[in-house]
From TrEMBL, chains A, B, C:
<dbReference type="InterPro" id="IPR013738">
    <property type="entry name" value="Beta_galactosidase_Trimer"/>
</dbReference>
<dbReference type="GO" id="GO:0009341">
    <property type="term" value="C:beta-galactosidase complex"/>
</dbReference>
<dbReference type="InterPro" id="IPR013529">
    <property type="entry name" value="Glyco_hydro_42_N"/>
</dbReference>
<feature type="domain" description="Glycoside hydrolase family 42 N-terminal">
    <location>
        <begin position="23"/>
        <end position="388"/>
    </location>
</feature>
<dbReference type="GO" id="GO:0006012">
    <property type="term" value="P:galactose metabolic process"/>
</dbReference>
<keyword id="KW-0326">Glycosidase</keyword>
<dbReference type="InterPro" id="IPR029062">
    <property type="entry name" value="Class_I_gatase-like"/>
</dbReference>
<dbReference type="Pfam" id="PF08532">
    <property type="entry name" value="Glyco_hydro_42M"/>
</dbReference>
<protein>
    <recommendedName>
        <fullName>Beta-galactosidase</fullName>
        <ecNumber>3.2.1.23</ecNumber>
    </recommendedName>
</protein>
<feature type="binding site">
    <location>
        <position position="158"/>
    </location>
    <ligand>
        <name>substrate</name>
    </ligand>
</feature>
<dbReference type="InterPro" id="IPR013739">
    <property type="entry name" value="Beta_galactosidase_C"/>
</dbReference>
<dbReference type="Pfam" id="PF08533">
    <property type="entry name" value="Glyco_hydro_42C"/>
</dbReference>
<feature type="active site" description="Nucleophile">
    <location>
        <position position="311"/>
    </location>
</feature>
<dbReference type="Pfam" id="PF02449">
    <property type="entry name" value="Glyco_hydro_42"/>
</dbReference>
<keyword id="KW-0378">Hydrolase</keyword>
<feature type="domain" description="Beta-galactosidase trimerisation">
    <location>
        <begin position="400"/>
        <end position="598"/>
    </location>
</feature>
<feature type="binding site">
    <location>
        <position position="319"/>
    </location>
    <ligand>
        <name>substrate</name>
    </ligand>
</feature>
Length: 662, 662, 662
């Protein structure tokens, strides 16, 4: 239990364990299955389950009529068997009656099309009717279960993600803009409304960026993205305040979708007690392990410490075109990788695979094949593993000396309708740079660009299209103070209003990076590769005139840019004007890390092996299908096998060792 | 004329002939062309034409004002020249005034967009206003022409195919659901509404599956597909009853689109006197001949005997991206193939190619090139051929000992938004299996899974995602009684409510097929091939644990499934867990057929030659561009050439022989 | 100044110069930037700028409240510095208040979706409210600046291009149809409404071709395209009349998008004093130089003399997927090419690159890099070049002996939903044929098919799907009178109502071209090539029966058409039934030109060098990246370098010589 007066944390829920469990939807099953469920949960070492996420229509089948009996029985049953509950407010899926009585609660898309009930997330976040009804049901749930002994955590709503362009949204957007800008003149200035004659005389004239004849105002779209994230955040905070009032010692979370475009997760994280995330890498993606690592690094950075893996799939999902299951061992590998990278909870959607509904082909801890299925056997193995490492791992922290700067506003700004190249996707660039560091085995955090960077010796900026003046000043200062910087293209182009900086790129950054004149961008076509002498670049190239004192680390070797710098170095700052192929980008970052004195987690690691230090432990994970022997200096005990490991550890396919120094 | 008291049949229209003709739309032409038309029709041996399909606005130019004069003249003219009439109710294309006066008669799509007049099929089948107006015009047409001596058949509407998500549809859907389920609770149970909190408190809350934020409830969509087929069927039956009342001896049909997703043609066929179909294989498709054969087999099975080819193209259609004409001889080949496979009518859209309108580039029996065009020369040749074979072929039947099970509800169920693989398309799988049998020259029927299968020694189930308990019991019983079964993947997964069977596949089927545990599906990516040792599989693979007594006929040879069965055999049942490449699937089915004692139509046939027995006749068809000599034991007379054929027949490119035993 | 009583022309604005400048939007910039602008304009030799295009909201921030102060200051400032003004009516982008007060002014698309404000061109051209407001603001602008000494030209609206399917459009469409047809019967006949039963009883029943269930009536769509062009033209003419009334001596233009589908530019040009165009070839397209030439030839033909290049990009645009800048020299090359082909004005969108708004990544004469950027250096060079050649080039004319027939109505007619091949795109075919002539260095005009063709010895018809009787008669007469004709496929198929001609192609044309029977079209699949013996055809092939006296110049060599003519010759007419590969089509046209006595602009030119004669001058342009020496008989002075050129000129990469005979 948390100290009175200070907000609760994940530790108040884990209580020294790694939580293990999943979404549990017993309303889909007859009572006799509940009994089997708790038996199998105990067999698998499940510590906790998430309950009630989609239960609004069950709890309140008609306006104001509430039925909690089944949930009372469930909470008691779980508690009886020692299983904790992460209890959700059920506001992600309003009952059909809400949309029928209050059509304004339904979202409307940018083309004016209503999103009807019959799915989920059919709520307009700015709708006063929705907010009123959501607050009432949250209040009822909180009041009833605040003191239930099974309660471990509150889970607000689910994967907040709606955009709404309807009339309630228009009204709220006007209010949000009035707060931001004060006068139409200030708004017109920020939006550059003079372009194409879009100036507004009053706030009443403003609309969400609905369907238009041609390109819409990018600053309007940027602000609408900010507004949309804020509207959802208001919904979250309203419900958080309700449950917190009833149960001040119980931590509150909402589950992010990883690197989700619609929410500024830096801002959101500040309002959560626990940062949690749902992650669904594609088992068919050969680089999925790195993706999973990136999400872990990002979520840990948002949490500032241990975080919660709220949802993953035991096997296949059902929403891709082709949905592969996880081969033997992969579920375990990625679960332990999450713990290695800071997770104190390893959970799933969902405990038992549904027989009906839109996700009945989404895998679960107990699959359709039942307890004899391969899936459940792996579930039990993971539960046992987590129990073994929990006491040494839970609550511990880790730190990195390298950091990747990342910002939703920069992403939102860059994703405009008309831009130099639609092939440049922020998330792909971010992932390419993280992959380079991951394959170099260099531990890395993520940070908001305006965050204090003093702890980091290597600062990596894959791409930050827009940056505030403060962020630029801080970054420049940190580099001047000795940090090594590696900066990718399309960085520092605009200010926070999406106003292009004089010269086409911020002058302070140009000076830092040694760019005298940025003449032209030369984006590359699909599949085109720019010959840079020692490597090939993709996606982008640039016609830049270096400043005196800057030198080309690599130069374009042919074409219109022949002889111009591809990678420019100026002091301890490097500018990379293309996206180098993976090995080349890795090499660039290895060089920079070496120079900055930033070391990999372990020396001599093969490419497919990941090593991560957390607290006292060293996790070694084999992402390959071939067994491998990894040198590990010193003597350790492998917590998973309870065997001693000297100087080297042998890992089978997808094998993991969790090494505790002896 | 049919026996009083029993419903009329196709024989009442054919009267011992193979009908030959097409849609005839003289309202597009001046009177002088009508005269040329009947002259050319007689020259071509046309027996009958379909009239009035799109004549509503012509007959009733404004509400209640009717003009039948032109149609009276036309009917008389045709009768005078001995040409029969298939007379349509013109309800597929309401006049502009109907939509203008009653906007509710216009369909609305799932995004809420109205489908306006100015095309065709702009009617909402559940609209009371539409139904009232359609009944009135059908009544007027029936009353006027019931006793006309030219009348051979009634043709109701045209290619029924509208989906409607509007408010009339919503009301009717609620009524349909109330009839089906009685209470909201029963509906919630059938739909698994507990998932994502979609439970309905009253039927009034239910909508068609309109646009939603994310995945919609698949059971709701399945029921909406059932409902939509039923709404159209209600429209058909209402008009059928009207014309039948006026002319009890005249058979009634409506023309199906082949393997059309929107109509449960098994159910519809029960309500027709004549089963007819429109088929438009692509001349550019090298396997179009097999497609045509499949549609013929399916339509014959629906009809339970002779059927009517209501529409085909003499040459090119106009709705594909690239529309190829039929090369010399192909129209004739496919026309005779249809007769071989049971058609007693070979008709076209349309008699004379339109000069105006949306289908003026669709070919016709008389093309834009006129009577000197290659098209009309082939038309005349086909007319003459049909006249030669009609007396021996018309009304005869044929039977097969192999059967393919096919069901619309299984198709509807399988086509859900989120599923293991969107690459798996039911119709493609069905076609692949039929192709294997066609290339093996094995005669085959189609049957509904709940149909009596006693007549068949080889039962083939390409894929039946959902099956009723009765269908499963009957299938198991038939196999236990000695039939050979070959069953493809994704069969028996769900019950008729789309509820996944325990274990992920029906236990009775698993026992029959020798599957102990179905661990995981491993759908294959686009272009991926699974090495199965002696062949390659596509689309799908599976991780199954065989039961004792089952043995692998083929096994996966590499990858995660190496060593697991790809084709499993258990007694006289085989389970095929992938889609083998064409030759391999053919080989599998040839083995099974041999074992079942099912023989090809003729021995020693080359791949491109099709042989079909119908009544006393043996049709031999060369689908190849090279001449071929085909051994045919015994002595026959070729009805087309009136020559004697001993032991072998020589067929030119696209050549056909219709052999009558001497 | 123009002679009183005759309309003004471009010469009234150029006054012996080649105009050089661009769109200038000072409302986006603070006053101090204006001062820098005029300094840089003078440095660059700018003669004139286009002002006010998107200034409505700035001039009239709320209904009836007008603020001209800033524009007064700007006009005076420009005039003070000797820079002329092309002044726009700002009606392309109404202020937000107009849509808010009068929602009917917003366009509605064919799916019923509103196009909201927040972009540009959000006006419904048939809306009476829009027209009233547009007339008022045009009146105010014209009244205020008619006599301003800086005023050179009026620029009405901008890139007219809206389609509207809303209720105002429906009303206006009915009126337009009533004018065209008089009675519903005549309309039904023209539209072939009998097809699919679409007959209209009154004009009130008619809608724009909105979303429908299936294919819409192509004649209705064709008329709607005519109507839509006419509605926009009515808007243009109304504003033109207003400004002309205030300033009779000032020429009026509106800027076309090149080869834009929505405007019949032949008709529009008749109503303009100056024909101007915006052209944006893709620098990444290796054939962009030819495209630019084609647009120049077409615009010159519309203007009947000198024309205005209103907009081009100094470097990259921002609306393509990948936007390449122009490499060093390309902007200059294409600018001088435009002058070579008749332009008397070389202008840009825009003068100074915007920092905000939807097109801030669109290049400009002064780019983000500013006056040190490569872009501005090239701007200055072009300004100096134009000043050098202006006195000898401005106002001069040129003529060709070859002509390409082109017609919007034929294009509109051909672009129907259902057609033989959707791969056949009119604009691509047109461009392929122009490219053949361009690569053959043959000067060419464009002409409307009903235009007098007496001046031309070689008539080229790439594709004219529909043709009027008059046009056919004139074409036949011209060929009978001795002109050489080369005619592509899909020509003369339909009359002006989109009614297919008897025989599938007009009989007069068939006779002229030597086609006895047109049996079938055989469109080719994507990537398919038809072997024609000496070359390959693409896109299309045909089964034609030649008339006696016609001979095959080339024949299909394999496939179903083996032995049939691919290119047919009959007297001095050739029919090309496929799209030959580029070299083959060039060869065909070279042969025809030689026979017609039509010579290239210069003999012995390499492929990448373009030569054009204008007035006394010979322009020689190197489109290649390698230097080249071009033989030029005689002695000339190169106006650009002021050097003498004897017998040959050496051109660097992208180099140009403007040769004046000595």
């Amino acid at each position: 239990m948390s100290t009175p007066g200070t907000p609760p944390t994940l530790a108040d829920a884990t209580r020294g364990r790694i939580l293990f469990g999943g979404d549990y939807n017993p309303e889909q099953w007859p009572q006799e299955v509940w009994e089997e469920d708790v038996r199998l949960m105990k067999e698998a070492g499940v510590t906790s389950v998430t309950v009630g996420v989609f239960s609004w229509a069950r709890i309140e089948p008609r306006p104001g009529v509430r039925d909690f009996g089944w949930l009372d029985r469930l909470m008691d049953l779980l508690h009886t068997h020692g299983i904790g509950v992460v209890l959700a407010t059920p506001t992600a899926s309003p009952p059909p009656w809400l949309g029928r009585l209050h059509p304004g609660t339904l979202p409307v898309d940018e083309d004016g099309r209503t999103e009807w009930w019959g799915s989920r997330q059919h709520f307009a976040p700015a709708s006063p009717d929705y907010r009123r009804a959501a607050a009432a049901i949250a209040e009822a749930v909180a009041a009833r279960y605040a003191d239930h002994p099974a309660l471990l955590m509150w889970h607000i709503n689910n994967e907040y993600c709606t955009y709404d362009y309807g009339d309630d949204a228009a009204r709220a957007f006007r209010g949000w803009l009035t707060d931001r800008y004060g006068t139409p003149g200030a708004l017109n200035d920020a939006w550059g409304s003079a372009f194409w004659g879009q100036s507004y005389d009053t706030f009443d004239e403003i609309l969400p960026p609905r369907r238009a004849h041609y390109l819409r105002n990018p600053a309007q779209i940027l602000d609408f993205r900010r507004f949309s994230s804020d509207m959802l955040l208001e919904c979250f905070r309203a419900e958080r305040d309700i449950v917190r009032r009833h149960a001040p010692g119980i931590p509150v979370t909402t589950n992010f979708m990883p690197l989700f475009f619609g929410q500024d997760a830096w801002e959101w994280s500040r309002h959560e007690d626990v940062v949690s995330v749902d992650t669904y890498p594609d088992p068919a993606d050969p680089h999925a392990g790195q993706y999973q690592a990136m999400i872990a690094d990002m979520t840990r950075s948002q949490a500032g410490g241990p975080w919660m893996l709220m949802e993953q799939a035991a096997g296949a999902v059902s929403w891709r075109d082709v949905n592969r299951p996880k081969p033997e061992g992969l579920n375990r590998l990625w679960s332990l990788q999450s713990v290695a990278r800071g997770a104190d909870a390893v959970c799933y959607f969902q405990w038992r695979q549904s027989r009906q509904g839109a996700e009945k082909f989404h895998s679960a801890m107990v699959s359709h094949a039942g307890e004899r299925g391969r899936g459940f056997l792996e579930t039990k193995r993971i539960g046992a593993d987590l129990a073994r490492i929990g006491p040494r791992a839970a609550g511990t922290r880790q730190r990195a000396e390298a950091v990747i700067l990342h910002d939703w506003h920069a992403w939102w700004g860059s994703a405009q309708e008309a831009r130099p190249s639609r092939l440049v996707a922020y998330e792909d660039v971010l992932r390419a740079w993280h992959r380079a560091l991951w394959e170099a085995h260099i531990p890395v955090d993520f940070a908001h660009p305006a965050q204090d960077l003093d702890a980091y010796r290597l600062v990596v900026v894959p791409q930050l299209y827009l940056l505030s003046d403060d962020a630029i000043d801080a970054l420049v200062a940190r580099v001047r103070a000795g940090a090594t910087l590696v900066c990718g293209f399309l960085t520092g182009i605009a200010d926070t209003d999406d106003r292009v900086r004089p010269g086409g790129m911020d002058a302070r950054l140009r000076e830092l990076l040694g760019i005298d004149v940025l003449h032209e961008w030369w984006p590359l076509a699909e599949g085109e590769r720019a010959d840079c002498g020692t490597f090939h670049g993709t996606l982008w190239s640039e016609e830049i005139q270096p400043a005196p004192g800057a030198r080309a680390v690599a130069s374009y070797a042919s074409g219109e840019l022949a002889g111009l710098p591809a990678v420019l170095r100026h002091g301890n700052a490097r500018y990379v004007s293309t996206l180098p192929e993976p090995e080349a980008l890795r090499g660039l970052l290895e060089d920079a890390a070496r120079e900055a004195g930033v070391a990999p987690a372990l020396d001599g690691l093969p490419l497919q092996v990941e090593a991560v230090r957390r607290g006292p432990l060293l996790f070694v994970l084999n992402h390959g299908r071939d067994p491998v022997t990894v040198p590990v200096p010193g003597t350790h005990r492998d917590l998973l096998t309870d065997t001693e490991v000297r100087e080297a550890v042998r890992l089978p396919r997808f094998g993991v060792a969790v090494l505790d120094p002896v």
